[in-house]
Please model this.
Amino acid sequence: MKKVITYGTFDLLHWGHINILRRAKEMGDYLIVAISTDEFNRLKHKQAYHNYENRKLILEAIRYVDEVIPENNWEQKVEDVQKHNVDVFVMGDDWKGEFDFLKDHCEVVYLERTEGISTSQIKNELGSN
Ligand code: C2G
Model:
């Protein structure tokens, strides 16, 4: 079984997120999504609208997602890849190059980010109404 992993906050889930989850799943048979905890989001200077539990609930309902685990820090990726026997690490290309250190442990793929949508854009546009 070819296992894929990806990481993110996935707040206010939108079609850009779905696009990367679908393509990540297409790269294997089993997709693990590591969702940033609320504490880690604070480290990322991100304030998610939905808390971790609800973001996890939403992600677990997506057909492409097989397992959701917490992302607690920047340092856990090598351990996650080893512990879960991951074959492919996938991120949007806004992160291109940032995780190349994982190439010693698995395939690293940066997929094209979906243009025209983002959680901050949604927040800004709703906030201005
Ligand atoms: N994404 C995308 N297209 C968009 C928006 C997001 O492809 N229009 C992708 C991002 O590139 C990322 C994933 O969706 O791969 C999740 O995006 P975020 O929730 O914004 O995650 P981020 O804050 O980038 O956290 O350790 C890695 C971090 O946790 C990544």
In short: The longest strand covers residues 30-36.
